[in-house]
Amino acid sequence: MKDKTIWIKADEGNWDDRKTVITTGIESGVDFILVNGADVSRVKELGSVRVAAFAYDNKSGADIVVVGKGGEGDGSKPLPPDYGGSLDVTSAIRLKEKGVKVAGYVIIRNKDYENFAAELGSVCDYLITIGTDWQVIPLENLIAGLQKKNVKLISGVKSSEQAKLAFETMEHGTDGVLLDTRDLNQIKKTAALVESAGVKELELKAAVVTRVEPIGMGDRVCVDTCNLMVRGEGMLVGSQANGMFLVHSESEESPYVASRPFRVNAGAVHAYVKVGEKTRYLSELKAGDEITIVDAEGRQRAGVVGRVKIERRPLVLVEADIGGKIVKNILQNAETIKLVTKDKKPVAVTDLKVGDEILVHSEDIGRHFGMKIEETIIEK
């Protein structure tokens, strides 16, 4: 679900200071560390992280080669009248021809550098832009100008506040940020920000319960995550992809068992569960998979599956009406399994009754292999 990336710039200063920044970045879950070519192997010794390197070849073994430092991109060389003949553009093309992932690096000093950035971005996999006395306008121009190009735009920032601005520019925002700071707290704040950046809130609607009926024994799935959930959070699960119930986590205290805030007792093996923009069957989830955690306000965040438990248990069928459409879910029939009311309060399926209103996410679109499609599909 996470569609924004965070890069850490660690190419200046002594190694001990940079090492602290790098290890904090790795521990915070950043996506890339940007260093000079000579430091690539040292970074990889510190942890599992992708490494980008300033260079004009790939002798360092970096995951991404970044051209522009010491060239036209940072102003070390004058911009040529024909941008396509520049050292940076030529180098990027040659590296791409060799199958190397390439990023262009440009400090936007004026409109000419903005134009150069657009030219370099048209031949690179990533484009890193660093502002000087600007914030938004050149970024908006580049987002608009490169939206049809196969390039990811990375904006240079110095704080989590600037990162937030970059992610929100022109709604879509940049694809990532390059954070240049020695403030370890800013690294942690930006890493936390990127988890939800660019993720739209879902619309949850109240559906009226029309049927609650025990249906006998079956196999149900418990999804234990590597994340702690709080009151109001759970997963979207349903027997139909176009009508998914918010199934609450076991974060609530209970007289029957201790709370397990990492767990959602999600439903029967056949059910769909929302994962990013797709759905998956509960039965196919496994440790290490991504899962989407949703709260009663429709806010989403990415989670990681730690364990899946499939066990035979008594089941209950819940049907609800949403705008004249009947949606269904099959859950374990137990006091600890809860849905969420329109008042955003957890309600146990054992206490659920006809006429109650519960939160459901409804889509007027079909799905094929978990992906949205414009096709008539009937599920009942």
TrEMBL record:
The keyword Acetylation does not apply. Signal peptide: none annotated. Its EC number is 1.4.1.24. Residues 4-193 form the 3-dehydroquinate synthase N-terminal domain. Keywords: Amino-acid biosynthesis, Aromatic amino acid biosynthesis, Lyase, NAD, Oxidoreductase. GO terms for molecular function: 3-dehydroquinate synthase activity; dehydroquinate synthase activity; NAD binding. The keyword NAD applies. It catalyses: 2-amino-2,3,7-trideoxy-D-lyxo-hept-6-ulosonate + NAD(+) + H2O = 3-dehydroquinate + NH4(+) + NADH + H(+). One of its GO terms (biological process) is aromatic amino acid family biosynthetic process. Residues 207-380 form the 3-dehydroquinate synthase C-terminal domain. InterPro entries: DHQS, DHQS/DOIS_N, DHQS_C. Belongs to the archaeal-type DHQ synthase family. Catalyzes the oxidative deamination and cyclization of 2-amino-3,7-dideoxy-D-threo-hept-6-ulosonic acid (ADH) to yield 3-dehydroquinate (DHQ), which is fed into the canonical shikimic pathway of aromatic amino acid biosynthesis. This is 3-dehydroquinate synthase. It comes from Methanolobus chelungpuianus. The lineage of its organism: Archaea, Methanobacteriati, Methanobacteriota, Stenosarchaea group, Methanomicrobia. The gene is aroB'.
